[in-house]
Amino acid sequence: MSLLALQEKLQIASKDFQKLQSDLSVAVDARQRLDAQLSENEMVKKEFALLKPGNEVYKQIGPVLVKQDQAEAKSNVDTRLEFIRGEINRIEVQIKDVETKSEKKKLELVEMQTAIQQQQEQQQ
């Protein structure tokens, strides 16, 4: 393969690697947001456990607090926790996939750079 063709392939692979790094960054950010949501909802669940049957629960909708049934509120938090955990698992799989692809692309880049260096040395 010619030096020029190798350099073009290297440039394309480099762009692919940068895209993978960007995808990884987005996925890690999403994972961090989900962790924050998980922690917040677990705190709410702990607070709900302290409620007595007669305590009133309010839900904020925009600027307004609306009375909500305690059992319904607890159920909503449990459902939200289940959803968040599912999303965390999905994102974890996505992160591992992108990391694997990124590592392969990195090795490919190193191999191409080595091939380019060897060709440049042969031309000198």
From TrEMBL:
An example Gene Ontology CC term for this record: prefoldin complex
Key word Ribosomal protein present: no
GO molecular function, one term: unfolded protein binding
Record keywords, A-Z: Chaperone, Coiled coil
GO biological process, one term: chaperone-mediated protein complex assembly
Pfam families: Prefoldin_2
Segments forming a coiled coil: 3-47, 81-122
Record's keyword annotation contains Aminoacyl-tRNA synthetase: no
Stated family: Belongs to the prefoldin subunit beta family.
Protein name in the entry: Prefoldin subunit 6
Source species: Marasmius oreades
